[in-house]
Amino acid sequence: MEYKCVAAPRDIVIDEGGSSEKAVSSFANSINSESKDGWDFFSLESIKISEKPGCLAGMFGAKETTTTFNMLIFCKEE
Q: Which of the chain's termini has less CB crowding within 10 Å, N or C?
């Protein structure tokens, strides 16, 4: 099997009282796009990436920041 990681849609904003359909369709569009190239959806995974501040920012008390990224994992036969 061959695997491929694709960044999942980010920063999806839904207006108050809005439907979650916007978020769902963003993920569906990404999955369908990869499917057209023969990739099968395998899983959704989250990873956390920590970034330390640079020298100057560190001198002024900046702290390490952590960001969570979601990845869509696809697979296909080689």
A: C
Q: Which residues of 3-36 are buried (b: 16+ CB within 10 A; e: fewer)?
A: eeebebbeeeeeeeeeeeeeeeeebeebbeebee
Please state the pTM of the whole predicted model: 0.71
3 state SS for the chain? CEEEEEECCCCCCCCCCCCCHHHHHHHHHHHHHHHCCCCEEEEEEEEEEEECCCHHHHHCCCCCEEEEEEEEEEEECC
Angstrom distance (rounded) from CA 14 to CA 75: 30
